[in-house]
Amino acid sequence: MQDEVLIVGGGVAGCAASIALARKGKSVTLIEREPTPRHKVCGEFLSGEALDDLRALGIDVASLGAVPIEYVRLAAARRAAEAPLPFPAASLTRKSLDTALIAEAITAGVSVKCGRSVQSLSRTTANRWQAILDDGSTHEAPTVFLATGKHDLRGHARPRDPHRWVAFKMYYRLSAAQTADLGDASELTLYSGGYGGIQPVEGGVANFCCVVQQRYFTRAGLRWEGLIANMQKDCPHLAMRLAGAEPLLAKPITVTHIPYGYLRRTTEEGLYCIGDQAAVIPSFTGDGISIALHTARSAVSAYLAAEPATIFQPKLRSAMLPQMRLAEAAANGLNNALARAVLPFCLRVWPGAMRVTATLTRVTQPPAVAPEAFAN
Fold first, then answer.
1. Which residues of 234-261 are buried (b: 16+ CB within 10 A; e: fewer)?
2. Segment 217-264, tens digit of pLDDT
3. Please, how many CA atoms are within 13 Å of residue 119, restricted to the half-sphere of its CB?
4. What are the tens digits of pLDDT across the range 136-177?
5. How many CB atoms sit inside 10 A of residue 222's CB?
């Protein structure tokens, strides 16, 4: 099958790019490996930039049940410190968000192929890209947007993660007292070998998403029950939060080998890499969805302006490098035992530090790629 643009991956970045391109009259096919949207390992935090982009795409997160987030709170051991967020924010499950984005893509005229995975993606002698699917069918296009998220496509893999991070996601129904105490905050909890975030999502549920280095998971016997017990021992605040909580999944959703700090340097002709295939920011920033939307919007703007992917990709890297390096430095600090001991006290003295960090690790939106690029 022949298209102007082929998009591999139907998550936030892939759907956003497909909607924007279809609205500009392009013939777009989107291929997504999952048959229907599902829960994913994701903190599900929507920053102000993400909300602006989603609004431009026609996604009304409030109508989907998104929960407004007003505060950021950091907890280590038994101490906690909080500060108001310096921008509007919300929380929404990825299953709800992805469902809305897929529906909007179909409405925009995108040919959506769900439940099909790409087995190979290569250049043909005619300088087109050819994707071979698991059912043996092929799709060809001169341009491809690679948006497979945390999952690498064979032949287009990112570097291996040296720290071997493992991420987990579990939904809980907290006790009434802990639900009220969590309130409208996104709460970051620190423990040995990693950190986790807990915040309310729609339906009176709390999302707990956490990352830990492989060696700490090994020490817990490679079992979730052992790991969560160790987390609560290191961080009694987390133990308090989860006291009497009801887990809502039979087992946590898991993903491994997340290359935090990755920024793609180069790409091939006609291959625009977006979302986690372009940049992987440390999870504590809550900026993953915003970056997915930002990179999709930037790539669409570049493509429509006839800027080759080989020029776009290093430009995107240069623009995002300061934010990514700052986030990496902050993440390294969170994994330091001394920092875990003194951070809550320091932040109580100067809570504005959390606001400054939250501001500096946001995606910038230069006028050349303002949210209007997503508009009808």
1. bbebbbebbeebeeeeeebbebebbbbb
2. 999 999 999 999 999 999 999 999 999 999 999 999 999 989 998 999
3. 7
4. 999 999 999 999 999 999 889 998 877 789 999 999 999 999
5. 11
